[in-house]
Design a protein that fits this description.
4-stranded antiparallel β-sheet, 0% helix
Length: 298
Amino acid sequence: VLTDIYFVNPDTGWIVGSQYVNNALDSALILKTDDGGLDWTTQFKGIAGEIGTSFNSVYFINELSGFVAGIWSSFLKTTNGGTDWIQYDTNLLSSLKSLNFINLYVGWGLTNDGKILKTLDGGETWVQQYSGDLGKINAFDFSDGNNGWAVGENGILLKTTDGGNNWVNIRKGLVEQLKSLNFINGNNAWVVGGNSTILNTINGGNEWNYQNIDTTVNLNSAHFTSENNGWVAGENGFILHTSNGGTSWNQQLSQTTSDLRSVYFINDQSGWIAGENGIVLNTTNGGASWTTKQVGWT
């Protein structure tokens, strides 16, 4: 079971998850590739003989330094590209499902129950910054060591300008669940969520503009290649594209009714979308047409 992937360049990347033992229990797993995914080597399996453990997230700041987190409060760190992994006993009450680091020492983690934690010593100790009292956080992102945003249930939209010490809810009347957060730069960002919710900021989150979309489809993911050019994907094969920063949106035909969960473009022409039932879509013409890729699983 593979849960997260991270590449630092086109050749070097890691995948984390778990591997079945005796067809019943899980053993934590870290894989690495140095040739763009053609070959993968196992860097780590299991934690001190402990069975029933799985990794949820992997994050690298360069080719040498990276972090892995998972269930049972597991947290590992490497400074030599994964040749050796150091395990830390975090004593966290909840497992980390997402990581974001700006250097070898300063980083943030998102727990399974929607809390935000911060570390100043590379993961050895963690301090809770957001308790989840306003709602569960689904995604978060930092543009630098001070400025960060988080989105979640009940339309919660949080912003920090001091590295997470204080979070301000900048939601204005929105109650839809927000699912995806995509930052283009420190000022321009997009958020999508339930009931066709699309929000955009051009001033670092101080103000958010609602995009008027004539549909009620739940949206799951957004990705922009520039301030003007971006795509949004959602349920029932729904894809939208804008080339003018959201002034207008055009629906693109996906040729599928499967719910689409994630969209990513490497330039204005080439992109991918993944979703339920093993669906993977690819375009080489900016979404004018989408081709279904057979990935071999459902």
